Each structure stands twice: as C-alpha cells, then as structure tokens.
Amino acid sequence: MLLVSAPILGVPEKLALSKVIDSGWLTMGERVRAFEEAFADIHGAEDCVAVGSCTAALHLILHALGVGPGDEVLVPSLTFVATANAVLYVGATPVFVDIESTDVPLMSIEEAETRCTLRTKAVILVHFAGYLANREQWQRFARARGLHIIEDAAHAPGLREVGTFGAAAAFSFYGNKNLTTAEGGAVIARDPALLDRIRQARGHGMTTGTHQRLNSRTPQYDVTMLGFNYRMDELRAAIGLVQLENLQEWNEIRRILAVLYRRLIAERCPAVTIPFAEPRTSAHHIMPILLPRYATRQAIIDELRTQGIQTTIHYPPVHQMTFYRRLFPNTNLPRTEDFAQRELTIPLHPQITSPVAEAVVTALATALDGCARAGTAA
Ligand SMILES: Cc1ncc(COP(=O)(O)O)c(C=O)c1O
C-alpha cells in the first residue's frame, strides 16, 4: 500500500537509539537540549523547548500566556481536533472561524473580525498542509485588538518565517509529520520570559530537572507554578537530531513532488482543483485536492485503495464532531463544510518517485472517469 505519508527511518536512527541505550540515560538530558538548539537554529530562533507532542506545546503556550476561563480563542475548524482541545484544556472557549475560500483553506481574516468580542484573547493560526498564513495581515489584525498570535505549525517545520508571527509556534513530530520522533513536539517563542515559563511548566513547574540536579550535585528544587509532565526523552531527541539533518532536503523533495502533481493533475484530471493555486511559502506537509461535485468521494477512495493507494481526508471539521456539536450547537461554517466534503489527500512524502506520482494521478483519472460514467448512466 502506498501510504499518504511515511517516515524515513534507517541505520542512522538505529545507531542514534543504540547510543542512547548504551549511555544508560533515557530521560530528558543532553540530547533533548541538543535537539532544542538545533531545531531553534534552523528556524533562526534563539531557543526552543522540546515537548511530548504538539498538543502539549499548544497547551503550554496558552497556559503560559495566561489564557483561561472567560477568554475566547479564535481557531479554524479545518484542523486536527488538538488545536481546539488545547483551548478547552485551559478553560477558555474556542471560537470556530471559517476558511477564506476553497482555494485558500486558511482562517479567513474577515470572518475572524466578525467573531471577535471583548473576551477574545488569542488566535491560533494553522498553516494548513504546510502553507503559511499571511503574516503581515494577521499581525495588523492582532495588534489592533491586542490579541496573541499562536501558530499551530504542526504541518510547517523548517520554514524560517514560522515562529515569527506572534507569541509562539507549536510543532508536531508525530509519525506522519515532515520530521518525526514517533511522538514529540516543540515550542518556539521569541520572548525569553515566555519560553522560560513554558520550559518550567513542561516539567511539573519545578525549578530544575533531574539531569540538571545530577550535574549540579544538588538535590534541591522548588515548584513555583502548576506544571505538567510534557517532557521529551533522549530516545526521541536522538531520532529527532538525525531527522533534522535531512529536513530541508526532504521539504525540497516534497515541493518538487507537489509541483509535479499540480502539472499532472491539470493535464489528466482537469475537473480536480488543487488549493493554493497562487504560489505561497509551504513545507508541503500533505497534498490536498478538491474533487469535482459530480464525483462520489467514497468511490474514488475505494478505487484508489484497490490499486494499492491510500487516501485520507483533511479534515473532518472539528465543529462537526459529536463532542464539539454538543458543546457548540448551531455552528455553521459553509466554506469549511464544502471544502471538507470534497477534499481528498493523496500520498506525498519524500520516498515517492516521479513514476509513482504518475501512477497515483493515472489511478485518480480512472476513478473519476468511473464516476462520470456512473453519473451519465444514472
Ligand atoms: C494541525 C495539527 N495540530 C495539532 C496536531 C497534534 O499533534 P500531536 O499529535 O503531536 O499532538 C496535529 C497532529 O496531527 C495537527 O495536524
């Protein structure tokens, strides 16, 4: 089965893991610190904090910014559920905002304006599929209203602009991401005081960690805030350090494949549209396409599956999930809903070769022909 995404793991990762095991120290230590420095460096940031997941990163950022009960946070619904969940974790209210259009499926600034109230404290921008939101427009929007900008950069590691929009950016190193540590995440924040609060909250609010105490030979520590256990460990950091060396090259292969897919799909499946028609900076995390209205998505999914090609959907909208429908009934986001009904994600990862991309598009064209014929027959 050709998977939508697949990690690249090999001998360097195995060797790195063996070294950690041989060292006898598995929990957060020197490798986590080295990973933080290297990850910050590729983003042109002074520092960063490695954590257990992007979900933890989002939670820590909101917590450190003091967002809490009574506050509202603007979020897209076209995202993974973790974006909205993090807002609920701190007791604040996520306010769902529609996308700009099916061509630009990022949070609409006009819609965001209409959803702002005196309680709005922050906006979480998701760089959907790796394509960056418009930084200057959002900074103007946030400045005029005194809002924090938080980037959910789960799809966009390795881009210099990421982490420069506002307060902080959260990254994911989950197994299907551009860079993986199996589970893992990181926070970039330019304000050292904010990053310090996040670092301390990551480890139970303690003033020192186990490894630091070992090195300084003092068992003393204090707890000066309510914290969490959101630490990364040495095994993950060791894999991350190896992966990081390849990130820029892998992102470039993703970009070349996305260009190839755009050309092949325009030629062979002209009824299919591809979001982000205008060039825009991207880490090309996934390859979303929009099926024509006559196509039955499930029939396309099934046909591709019989040909050994996995497809997925990004995303079933969060506001339509049972849990969120119960919490916020009557949320209507027509552009998000239309996009989500027609979206299909086709395989995109650095191990895909040109002939494989061609085979995917050929299979897509065949499946669409089948739908067109079924429609004519009906
Ligand atoms: C946009 C987005 N935000 C947040 C997350 C959560 O990431 P993690 O699994 O690292 O908590 C994901 C993961 O898929 C995501 O795609």
Automatic annotation (TrEMBL):
The active site is at 177 (proton acceptor). GO terms for molecular function: pyridoxal phosphate binding; transaminase activity. It holds the Pfam family DegT_DnrJ_EryC1. Gene3D superfamilies: Aspartate Aminotransferase, domain 1, Type I PLP-dependent aspartate aminotransferase-like (Major domain). GO terms for biological process: polysaccharide biosynthetic process. Keywords: Pyridoxal phosphate. The modification N6-(pyridoxal phosphate)lysine is found at residue 177. InterPro entries: DegT/StrS_aminotransferase, PyrdxlP-dep_Trfase, PyrdxlP-dep_Trfase_major, PyrdxlP-dep_Trfase_small. The keyword Transit peptide does not apply. PANTHER family: DTDP-4-AMINO-4,6-DIDEOXYGALACTOSE TRANSAMINASE, TRANSAMINASE. Belongs to the DegT/DnrJ/EryC1 family. This is dTDP-4-amino-4,6-dideoxygalactose transaminase.
